[in-house]
Amino acid sequence: MLDKILYRATEHVLTPRDTCEAESDYNGEHWKARISAIFVILASSAIGTFLPILSSKYSFIRMPPWCFFIAKYFGSGVIVATAFIHLLQPASEALGDSCLPSVWQDYSWAFGISLMTLFAMFFFELMAFHVVQMKVAASGLTEEEAEAHTHSHFGNPDLYTKKLEESEEEETSKTIEEEQHTTQANEPNPYPSHFQHAVEHQDPEHVHTPVNQKEKEQYYGQLLSVFILEFGVVFHSVFVGLSLAVAGEEFVSLYIVLVFHQMFEGLGLGTRIATTPWPKGKRATPWIMALAYTLTTPIAIAIGLGVRTSYAPGSATALITNGIFDSISSGILFYTGIVELMAHEFLYSGEFKGANGLKRMLSAYVVMCFGAGLMALLGKWA
Fold first, then answer.
1. 6: which residues sit within 8 A by CB, 6+ positions away?
2. What protein family does this chain belong to (predicted)?
């Protein structure tokens, strides 16, 4: 008797209360349009992602500074809105579907997973910063010098050590003027805060500061941020492509919206890739990252068309998988959008200093709000 009670209780928890949709939404219509979606979304993704990079590299297509300014902060708004509207909300719907086992419905798992991801991102950043500080301390710098020289958000301690050794070898040939700079190097850094940007740490008055290697010093910290951003966006793009390929009656509206969705999302990613200081040995990295985003959704659409009759986005497996990955991606974009793109750019960078700083800051804020609002509006259809 007890065995039967336990079995029924277990069955109630682990099996769906209703039957999830085991069939695809694909209705056989708009076949040519579905094929064209591969190439149209490939083009829109490429325009959004590659245009900022091309503009920053080649003068013949270089956008005016105000265009790049708008693209940068418009993209920041798009990323933040994507986290809230295009990731967390669908994840909540997927994991809260009534056909799933009760264990998924007894708690807001989408919000919980997103929250855990956000704190995991912050923990990784704390650990990375701690490792850099420890390695710099081991290099023999004083506490004041460590604060003055170590931090370009994360930095690369090996570059500091290498530069320090080079500086020591050159000390015997320094002029009297350079020795005066050496004295000034012992002054405390006026910007010891963890979240100050590298430009505030690159004080040319400090002889051990690798002024001539600013690109290398900033590379690792910003690269990590960009990779995290791309990771969250790419996972989302996979499910977007699959959903479009097997969509039923809503295919036409979804198709139109996703063309702009992928372009705007690519613009947000592309501007961040373009503004990252890439060393000479890593010049291919931004192109590879842009290409990865550009190809993700078209490949997912092609795969979706190949399994159009067997892939069921409403099945229990698809709902759980999609919901979990959307939740993780939302946590990543929450952290990246709010900390990296909003707090760093507006509060801790030097971009808004000077006489017209407030005007530029308010302009950037309005552009960011417009990008977030437009992306949030697209969430009505996709």
1. none
2. Belongs to the ZIP transporter (TC 2.A.5) family.
